Amino acid sequence: RSGATGVSGKSGAAATPPPHAVALVALAGHGASTAGERDWTMAEFAHDVLAALDAAGAEHWVAVGHSMGGAVALELARLEPLRTKSVIGVDSFTYDGFYRRQPEAKIERLLRPYQDDFPHAVHAAMGGLFLPGADQDLKRWVCESMARSDEASALASLIGLLRWDVDEAVEAVPVPVTCIAAAAFLDPASAARLRAKFEIEEIDNVGHFLMLEQPDAFNDRLLSAATRYLAGS
């Protein structure tokens, strides 16, 4: 959930691809990660991910993020453009209502249902991100898990995302960017604008949680996109 992943590589012989590992980072206020006093911005999350990668001894990486994690991955590339080989957003970037900076009045309107009844609003929002024929047990698990999130952390993170801007971030990042997107939810106008800036790969018959719905197809796309930038590093 809104996680950022670094696929990191270490130096190896030129004749063979270097080894690489996967570092999975639960962002502050997500999973078992505590929140503490912090600025709830995408840039602050990126500092956290960088600290985790440094602690793991990573020399370089492909930054991967699902949903809000894609914004964090782009901010990580801003922080470390030489060590970030590429950025991969997973059903990220292409929802203009979330990934372009929103007016404060609109942010207030978007937050109101969550402030009134957080679990109900989460179930409604997350349930709408699955296709009608989706696995109902998976859908229930995702909705119930996210409804149990810490409300204060979740809303602060959402505000941070709504004040972020994908176009501004992409222009500031000098590394290749790819989005692996759920075709059914891809906004045509957003995709048309962003295809001029980075590659968008679509997966059919999945919703927003495509890595859970079609893991094999997703893993193939992810490994293909990631290893092209790590193999020759």
Task: Give a verbal description of the structure.
With 233 residues, the chain is α/β, with parallel strands linked by helices. The protein contains eleven helices and six strands. Strands 2-1-3-4-5-6 form a six-stranded mixed beta sheet, sandwiched between helices. β5 (177-182), α9 and β6 (199-203) form a beta-alpha-beta unit. α2 runs parallel beside α8 (166-172). The longest helix is centred in the last third of the chain and has 16 residues, at 215-230. The chain starts with a strand and ends with a helix. Mean pLDDT is 90; it is low at 9-15.
Summarize the structure.
It contains eleven helices and six strands.
Q: Which labels suit this protein?
A:
233 residues; alpha/beta; 6-stranded mixed sheet; globular
Share of helix among residues? 40-55%
Low-confidence stretches: 9-15
Order of helices and strands: EEHEHEHHHHHHEHEHH
- Count every helix, treating DSSP H or I runs of 4 or more residues as helices: 11
Basic shape: globular
Calculate the mean pLDDT score and round it. Answer: 90
Report the sheet-strand fraction.
Answer: 15-25%
Strand numbers in spatial order across the main sheet: 2-1-3-4-5-6
Task: Report the biggest beta sheet as strand number plus sense, adding barrel if it closes.
Answer: 6 strands, mixed
Q: Determine the N-to-C terminus distance.
A: 29 Å
Work out the radius of gyration.
17 Å
Query: What is the number of strand segments?
Result: 6
Structural class: alpha/beta
